[in-house]
Amino acid sequence: MKTGQEYRDSLRERKMKVYLKGELLDPVTLIDHPFIKGHVNSAAMTYDLAFDPQYEDLMTTTSSLTNQKINRFTCLHTGTDDLTKKVKMQRMISRKTGTCYQRCVGFDAANATFSVTYEMDQALGTDYHKRFVEFMKKWQDEDWMVAGAMTDPKGDRSKKPHEQEDPDLFVHVALKDDEGIYLRGAKMHMTGMVNSHYMMIMPTSGYGPEDADYAVCCALPTDAPGVTHIFGRQTNDNRKQYDGAVDQGNAEYGVVGGESLTVFEDVFVPWEHVFMCGEYQYSGMLVERFATFHRQNYGGCKGGVSDITIGAAAVIADMSGYAKAAHIKDKINEMIHLTETLWACSVACSAEGKALPAGNYYPDPLLANVGKHNVTKLIYDIDRLAQDVAGGIVATLPSEADLRSPEIGKFVEKYLKGVAGVDTEDRMRMLRLCEVMTGGVALVESMHGAGSPQAQKVMYSKLSNLETKKKDAMRIAGVDPEKYGK
Ligand code: SF4
Ligand code: FE
Description:
By secondary structure, the protein is α+β, with helices and mostly antiparallel strands. 49% of the residues lie in helices and 13% in strands.
């Protein structure tokens, strides 16, 4: 296993092409860039905590492939106990970082690909699973951080990949030869991509035969020749460049996952790292598996993030002198109720997990989808309540520079004072934390990360067995279901 420091050092060895605000970054120092370093610190937490004896049980496990001790973020789940430990680990880490630590995406891609390649080989006689197992062993040995790359740009959403005016709007195999395949296209919203060693490419949806070139799953280094990353902007990100830690709210770990747009210009991938190439019949299965593994997480990671939001709101109430007001207590309790509701689905879908044919365990897909769907709504409620408790000052607070100003600092100090004994700067820090926890990027990520709400609703009709519910209701009402062909 790597330590956080070894992880950082290994990132400096990459020859990555990353653009940020129109500038090409130096590959050695890009992880120190003010826009990027918080995300690196957050991901490094997933490495360092594996060496903390207090978290050994949550953060490490034994590889089912090599029998070696590995970081949990590289494991294939061997039971419901593993699935439950995964979400417990996520809630624990979120409480330390207050934000995304990005490493779950590749972790989920691993479990999805392991299972789908097995079933695909059984049915089609291909040999992808063996290749993937060999790759997975290296992944575990090297303790890589692997970005999961699923979402394509999609262009005109009413059209399938082959119907698009520009065929590159979905990642596809542009060419193949004896050595491997050549990828063209782009992936969007790539969490943790610029601080990962490898990426796992997966199809963005299920395809038919006419889109077989788009049914591709493979692994490649993030610095492979022909790959260009364009780092995304975030709300208030200039504060990271020009302002002090107070104004950033969460200066150490940033907010969300440092997403990027990643472009592939005929990028070569050797056959040994190709795990699906044209088997369109299995593209939908891979998407569903990955989505379920990733949606399982959201009550864990967002549960932990909401713990920090609740804490911030409660401290602000303490510092401002209204913590004892009945309506404030009520709002804090409501935030706790909503947070534990998110958490309940993550625990439940893990406990209800089942073994897949390949042998690794899969969370209950219906409950995992319900959990993620709850996040698209309840985080908005939790954040609304936090802003309600914190007050309008969250949106109107003067800057740290004003606080430090020799001329006007005294006014900021005097008029932003709360309860006696509380430093104005500390109160400002809590308010800025509340701002960043409940702001634009964090909310949008809750809505669309791991799939937009509609993607979960689509799964309900597939998984909830509506026909059985209809039959049961008819039987109880004294209506013969057979009369209606049920
Ligand atoms: Fe993990 Fe949550 Fe970040 Fe997704 S949003 S990578 S589940 S921490
Ligand atoms: Fe996410």
